[in-house]
Amino acid sequence: MGAAPVARDPGAQPERTRLAWRRTTLAFALVVVLAGRTLITEGDGGPAAVVGVAGAAVAWVGFLALAHRRMRALTGRRPAAAGGTVLAAAGVVLAVAALLALTLSAG
Fold this sequence. Notes:
3 helices; transmembrane helix
């Protein structure tokens, strides 16, 4: 009567997680580009805007390194927990948001 249990593919979850990290990295890159465009076009385009865009770009590179580290950890036989990497990535995102908000309010 009940459906037979479906065998779980142990490789599917790490693959989905890798794809999610890639999508997140691309979305973060788009946010940095659009925020930079906003700072340059709507702001005065002065030094504060340049510092804001440069800081966001450097932070994105740090986020990219964290994501790459996590994706490499998923290739092992038994993927390790992501706790520290996820918290660090969230910290980078919050730092960029704060930096861009301060830069926009200063300009």
